[in-house]
Fold:
Amino acid sequence: MPSCMTKLQCVACHTTYDTGKATTCPTCGPDEGILEVIFDTHRAATTLTRESLKTREPSVWRYAELLPIDPPNLPNNGLRTIGWTPIIGAPALATALGVKRIRLKDDGRSASGSFKDRASVVGVAMASAAGATSIACASTGNAATSMAHCAAVAGIQANIFVARGAPEGKLAQMLAYGARVFEVDGSYDDAYKLSRQSCAEFGWYDRNCAVNPYLVEGKKTAGLEIAEQCADDPPDWVAVSVGDGCTIAGIAKGLRQMRECGVIDWKTRILGVQAEGVAPIMHAIDSNRLDIPTGGTTYADSINVPVPRNWRKAVNAVRESDGVIVGVTDDEIRNATATTGRLAGIFAEPAAAAAVAGIAKACQQGILDDKANVVAMITGNGLKDIRGALSAIGKPIRVAPDLSTVRNTIDAAKRTEARK
Ligand SMILES: *Cc1c(COP(=O)(O)O)cnc(C)c1O
Ligand SMILES: [Zn+2]
Structure:
């Protein structure tokens, strides 16, 4: 099934460009002139149907009509294994949080352990098709980790710019996949600028999501999958954490395109979740402009993005779905990490647990009630940030190597339980 991509359109001035002719709008500039990839969903609908989907491969490439590039045909099938992650019911978690139903879409099981694989697989497939031998990006961690993974699979050199303080698990992954890692003495924004300058200087393929309009099409596949997997059993809300804003915009686009293709006939509201300390997109929903936060921070590194490049797309996505963005504290994220692990059996990294914390927050604020039916995106695996996880959960129980100390511990626990 060939791609039904038609053109690129500037999100600010709406001028259209031929695909391949621009990466950002020349009139509006690289900051404001983000381009959106436009597809002929009418044409896609002739072949992308519920019936045809039944026999397609379990990866992002099942949606070939709605991707900017044809499925890669490398000697190995590494780039064909990403996507189609499971949606798992979490009834105990729903009861604990006070909503009717929660399902978790667990992208922590993706090849490199995060949602970002969806964007990287498209980026690396495009780089590979263009004959690139090097690819680069700046990242708080997961985008780089997943790019390093996909690049290794495709035999391309990955160049990664990280800000100081990226979690060790993510750094270890990148280096293990053979990437060249530049640890920039500065902020994420400094790392971002340096990666862009290096791409221009050395001719590397640019995998930065904000300026590479095709990557969001990879992120979109999570929305396409939610639509297909919940086709006959739709949620009222989809909860997802927000850093740069690409993910939420991509998911909204995927859901919309599945409606346009006639695979689903329902709409769902979007619950964006930001860390309270770094919530420029949450504030932009009200003020309609970007104020860069000062002073605040969060330990959820993947959403610690004070200068989001895609805030406009994110704001539009939330507004069009009649959605909201809530802010959660680091303690609320820690709480959600523990409850998601204990009650749903899913170990989430802080930015992923934030989506669950957002459900709890939205309940407190009266946005969700006991009738709410929510799908939450678990965007990353807890093993990526062990230090962050350990700050959220209990400690092991130290015992001597004999049964009586175990018995004493169990008895003490029983007494505590009985007193409650
Ligand atoms: C990148 C990331 C997000 C947020 O995605 P944005 O596109 O930056 O909004 C959320 N969770 C995890 C685990 C991520 O890696
Ligand atoms: Zn423009």
In short: The two ends are 61 Å apart (CA to CA). The first helix runs from residue 29 to 32. Residues 10, 12-13, 15, 25, 27-28, 33 surround zinc ion (ligand 2) (CB under 6 Å). The chain has a mean pLDDT of 93.
